[in-house]
UniProtKB/TrEMBL annotation:
The lineage of its organism: Eukaryota, Metazoa, Chordata, Craniata, Vertebrata. Residues 199-241 are annotated as: Disordered. This is Claudin. It comes from Oncorhynchus mykiss. It comes from the Eukaryota. Pfam families: PMP22_Claudin. The chain crosses the membrane at residues 7-25, 75-99, 120-140, 160-184.
Amino acid sequence: MSDMVTEILAFILTTSGWVLISSTIPTDYWKVSSLDGTVITTATYWSNLWKACVTDSTGVSNCKDFPSMLALDGYIQACRGLMIAAVCLGFFGAVFALVGMKCTKIGGSDQSKARTACFAGVNFILSGLCSLSACSLYAHRITSEFFDPMFVAQKYELGVALFIGWAGSILCVLGGGIFCFSVVDSSTRSSSRTGYAYGGPASTSHVSSHPRGHAQPMSQRPPPKYSSSSRAQHFDKNAYV
């Protein structure tokens, strides 16, 4: 029962993390910068993996999609690939987790279900690591440009999407680790139970070494020998009956 509860908890964590990672890709504000006026913010510049936009004080946004994938900076291409890989790995991890969990009726024997659940945990861990790498790479580029005194272009700060991606990555890694450790603990306990063998008392039956049909003759007592006097005394009472 405890293993089942642990797997359900791990599935909730990993699924929540996968949803957060999936929502990070189309989310705006991977990086954001604003121009402040005397009273209000005059313009807000923000960008994500697909476009760069500017929003004025009236809330009107003007966006420009990135023209070509091959003309993009290398870090944006790497972030795109890592995020897509994270979403795909999380999807397959969720499918394998549903098959391998003990609360479901599919997946075959307990041993095969344990292997499937462990494989699902590995997929979730890889998904979290891919998303974590993508968000960290993007954040490193933002911070390096922000603190570079020789960089004269528009400087940006960390956007909300990066924090959502980091949170989803942590949930996926934690849930995947719980999946793997729960399977290892359950297999260890089952092996310890099956490894105990009862050593019963040794058989005391003795099989004769003589071949069939040649049984050893049993010793017989010789018949009692009666003397003539005792035989006469024995039949005195019934002599005339």
